Amino acid sequence: MLTRELLNFRVRQGVLRPVFVKRDDTELLTFAQDLLAEIAASRGGQRDDIEESLGLKAGAFTRPKVARGLVKLVLDRLLFDEPAPGVTEARWERIKAAGQVLRALPPDATVEDFEARLAQTLPAPLSEAREALYSDLPGHRRLAGWDGEALDAQDLLDRYNLALAQGPLLSARRLRLRAQAPDLLRVRKVLRWLKFCRLVAEVWRDDDNWALDVEGPGAMLALQKKYGLQLATFLSVVPVLERWELTATVEPSRQQATLMLSHKDPLRSPLPAALGHIPPEVASLAEGFADDAWELDLTPLPRHVGASGLCVPDLTFRHRASKREVALELFHAWHAAPLARRLTELRSRPDAGLLLGVDRALAKEAVERETLEAHPQVVLFNGFPSARKLRERLAKLEPGR
Amino acid sequence: MPSPTELHFDCGTLVAPTLPEDARLRALFQKDGRTGVYRAPAWHYREAVLRLRELGIPYEDKAKRFEPLELPLTTPIQPFPHQQQALEAWTRAGGRGLVELPTGAGKTLLAVLAIAHVKRPTLVVVPTLDLMTQWQGVLARHFSVPVGLLGGGVNDRQPLTVTTYDSAAMQTEFHGNRFGLLVCDECHHLPAPSYRFIAEGSLAPYRLGLTATLERADGGERVCEELLGPRVHRSDIRELQGEYLAPYEVKRVEVPLTPDEKARYDTARALYLGFVRRLGVPLSAPDGWARFLAQSQRSDEGRAAYRAYREQRRIALTSSGKQEVLWRILLEHRDDRVLVFTDDNETVYTLARRFLLPALTHHTPVPERKALLAAFASGELPVLLTSRVLNEGVDVPEARVGVVLSGSASVREHVQRLGRILRKRPGKRALLYEVCSAQTAESSISERRRQHGAYQEGG
What we know:
Protein name (chain A): DUF790 family protein
CATH class of the largest domain in chain B: Alpha Beta
Strand content of chain B: 15-25%
Structural class of chain A: alpha+beta
Shape of chain A: elongated
Number of helices of chain A: 13
Pfam family, one (chain B): XPB_DRD
Strand order of the largest sheet of chain A: 1-2-9-8-5-7-6
Strand order of the largest sheet of chain B: 9-8-10-7-11-12-6-13
Number of helices of chain B: 18
InterPro entries (chain A): Bax1
Organism (chain A): Myxococcus xanthus
Largest sheet of chain A: 7 strands, mixed
CATH class of the domain at 280-396 in chain A: Alpha Beta
CATH topology of the domain at 280-396 in chain A: ECO RI Endonuclease, Chain A
Order of helices and strands of chain A: EEHHHEHHHEHEHEEHEEHEEEEEHEHEH
Helix content of chain A: 25-40%
Oligomer: heterodimer
Strand content of chain A: 15-25%
Number of domains of chain B: 4
Helix content of chain B: 40-55%
Distance between the termini of chain A: 49 Å
Radius of gyration of chain A: 30 Å
CATH topology of the largest domain in chain B: Rossmann fold
Structural class of chain B: alpha/beta
CATH superfamily of the largest domain in chain B: P-loop containing nucleotide triphosphate hydrolases
CATH architecture of the domain at 280-396 in chain A: 3-Layer(aba) Sandwich
Shape of chain B: globular
Largest interface: A-B, 55 and 60 residues
CATH architecture of the largest domain in chain B: 3-Layer(aba) Sandwich
GO molecular function (chain B): ATP binding; DNA binding; helicase activity; hydrolase activity
Number of strands of chain A: 16
């Protein structure tokens, strides 16, 4: 993230727009490459020296504010070595020895007398002792490499643009996100990231378009707690949606403004590109599911469950006549803990619109099996629930209730 | 049969998936249209539970993650009358409230008594890392349980834990349900917007706020009263004065630069100020310093001016005359405990290397801070060098001599530094030296920070 003085934005008629850099800005890409080359050449160098050198380089660039921002983002991702073992212990011995020498001096002693006695007491020459005394300070640590994956120049510019948008969000209490006909796997990824960021959302759907009002759990209360950092973290997943718009009321200085972002901005998600996949058995079920009363939908409409859980179901069944929706969440053999949590949440707050498909591998013990078989919302299956079994269960649900 | 009311803790809020039809209970919560539950700030927990009990309605408390704790004192404490009165007033108020006691009147010990009284896991929130380690030491001395720390790179949560306001503000959403008693030391910090959530997001039914001066210019004391409880006790400083503070003396020492230093200082300062004048930006302007920094990196002339700025400052802060005076003071008081304050870390480490003295700055890891303060208290170390981290609140009763080698123009900082050596000990007479370089910009800084009654009275 960028600190306040490194942010770059304009406010016109109450609308705040970050001053993004062009992703193909040759001059900046060259500067970024220079920075990264200097980092590569600085391995083993002291942090203070590296920071000073990069700072001077940034100051001399034609756009120093942008350059300092890039330097900040680079420094945040560098890994410096740990202090050599024994530095603290050696320091301790030396300062204790110095204290004893000081106390033993006569009242008219000079600094030179002190140094002479110290030199006799210490196991190493005084100059070395001085040099090593605080060699473990952060500024003296040596560059070990990148903390995580190394960045290239394009990554760095992308991170900079994202950080420019994240900065104002730090002062936001909520944001509104609209996505135009997003791919469902992308929505799923966004919803999972929402939970990871410990945020909640009110979700609307209008045909294929989605709208999410995203905020912190306590935002509705008169709490001073802001969720700016979580909202800024959430932003990093938003570009996966491809066609989107985001607005938030922000207060980067003393005046409020509306931050407006969209897919037209040069924002790229730094998260891994993988979107997950729809399992082939789910896809084939979706294709092969034929029922007069119910239709099947793969839209992952999120459901808040229990006190604070968020369920992103695998499937949704919609009753053709009443439009009632029943979601199905699948629990495979490796989902024992999530299943236990979900059952607890359903006890806290029953949700008749949620069915749990549970692999029989999770019901090996007799007591567990009986409990699950008796549970009105559980459908047990081997490997994957069949269309027939699901149709039977859906038929038992009274539409419109 | 309907399931009983459940209470949950969710990121600093109290959540009930369902609630009985009771207007008073429901008034504590709001219906959360986003998730369909009832939600309240976590600090409403006490009222919610009391109401459920009053109604005789069965409920399942899945919110709190703490239970009563056996916390016997290692040795009995005989409180001072004002501490006893404060404890009784706080207890009468149901274990909620604010206590206002002057510095040195034993606020920490009062908290120890409160913890032993309520027997609940306790979180103590303090403003600085050094106060954090100091509180840990006091709690560890009085209770035979491990005392955890959260902050300064340490993440060790225990039933008795001390943390800083900064760490607590970030962690409350995770541990706000772990403690039954919340103690806010120097609680006048709590009303800051970024800190309020510490009390808002905590379930703790018992709360104690400690401060020397509750009043705030912005009326923030009302926030303290709402979140921690009403003011239950106040002892005026005049009631306790003479009992707790040591008499003191202030000595100002002006040190001339050597001719060589003076020449280098004048040259560097002229170069630096010349560049600033050509820049046309007064350094007193709000963005003056930032503009100087930016401009100084854009040309060889600017870079030279920046180097000159650092050079003249370094000469004034660590002149050989100052180092000689410091040496004389250290030697004269070699059997005392001496705290040396500087304005910046660079000077601290320069002096530390020169004299092989221990330095305590924000870089010092928490375990080393604790060890340094303990060794200083025991007399194993006669001197501690520090920049600003010991300015506020840290109790160093053993220190008799303070040396302000450099500092800002802040009156508050200067008085706080004086306060570090004023803890009363039998026969103690505290001595504060202020050493400043004559004929440099430091002289006027020194004049400005001495504008305080305590300072002038002492001088």
